[in-house]
Structure formats: structure tokens, C-alpha cells
Write a structure and sequence with these properties.
Layout: H1 2-6, H2 10-16, H3 22-46, H4 67-79, H5 99-114, H6 120-139, H7 145-166, H8 186-192, E1 201-204, H9 212-215, E2 219-223
Antiparallel strand pairs: 1-2
Helix pairs in contact: 3-5, 5-6, 5-7
Protein name: Phosphatidylcholine:ceramide cholinephosphotransferase 2
Organism: Trichinella murrelli
InterPro entries: Sphingomyelin_synth-like, Sphingomyelin_synth-like_dom
Length: 225
Amino acid sequence: LFVVILHFSHEQVKKLLPNSSRWILLRRVFLMLSLLYLGRCVCMLVTQVPVADPTYFCSPKSNNTTFGDVLLRALRLFSGAGLNIFGKHTFCGDYIFSGHTLILVMTYLVVKEYSPRRFWHLHLLTWLVSASGILCILLSRGHYSIDVVIAYFVTTRLFWLYHTLANSAELKEYSVTNLMSRECWFSLFRYMECNVAPSVPRQFEWPLSWPRCFKSASLGGSRLR
């Protein structure tokens, strides 16, 4: 994902996100996703559970796996965008915790946090879509219930912790009383947030150069506290 973002110019990213603080939003989202997927990798490494769907195809086990075999399977997985609907997803065991739930919950949290309060219809729609997606994951036996519960818990706690730190100038500094500065990723957090004010505009702008009537209009105006 980072490689894809690097291929966008400033104007392309500007068209991608309507929020006026798009670069701050991108930094925060990708840092949180990186931390979450790093934690997911650790959980997958130390915890193996049986396949939730008995009809799901898994590649046969190999007792003589080489680095080339692993690389080939990774490339095949990448070619199918990680989706089993393309018949390229042959890995099993990546259950705890659910990456799909992680993305759905993160999407709702970002939309809710960075859009004006009066966009309640957008918040409700995003919540319904996310909740429906999670329900479909469970009904299709894509994950166990515990995978979804852990993903929700970890994602929401990290999101709230990150924004609690980001919205307080005092909590961005190392101190004896700031126990949250003991987080292993706190130094990276300080680097990402070093030039960001404690309050970020909750404001949208029209991302395209046309029509001009939308370009000059301001959507939102409140600030994140």
C-alpha cells in the first residue's frame, strides 16, 4: 500500500481525498494500519486454528519448503489481490485476528472522526456497511467470532489511543507521568505528529477543479478537539 501511495503525485492524492487535511489523515491511517497488521502477523505466527470453512481449499503441505516456494506462493497471492474469489488465495491459517474486520472498523472510525458532525447520514451509512460486512464475514465462515471480536477491540483501542495522544500537546512528549510514552511505537508517532497542531480542521473541500461553484464552497468548519 505504501508503494501505491508513493506513485501518486500531490495533485492526485488531492483528488483522492476531499478532507482538507488529507496528508495528516493519510499519515495517521497508514501508521495505524501498519501497527495493526504487524500485530496481526505476530498473532498469525504464534496462533494456528483449524480452517473455519471445511470447503475452503488450502495448498497441500510441503515438508521441504524452500524460500523460492514461499516467494512463488506470495506472488500468486499478490496476483489475486489477496482475494479467494480469483482462485489465487491458497494460504490457510490467517484467522486471528480478522483483517477484513480491521479495515471495516477503521473505515467507519475515520469517516466518523474526520467528517463534520452534521454528516450523520454518512456516519450511519458507513456504520451499516461496516456492520453488514462483518456479519457477512461470519455468515460465510470467513472467520471465527473470536477473530472479529479481537479485531474490533484492537482496532478501536489503537485508534482512540492514537488520537488521544495526537490531540494533546502534553501527551506528545516523553515524561515520567506520561505512561503512554512507553509504547514501542511512540517515537515513530512523535515523528509523524511533530508538525501537526493538536486540533485538526474537520473540513472538506471539493477535490476537483470543476465545477467552480463546488470548489469555492466550504464543507464543514468545526475542528477536532
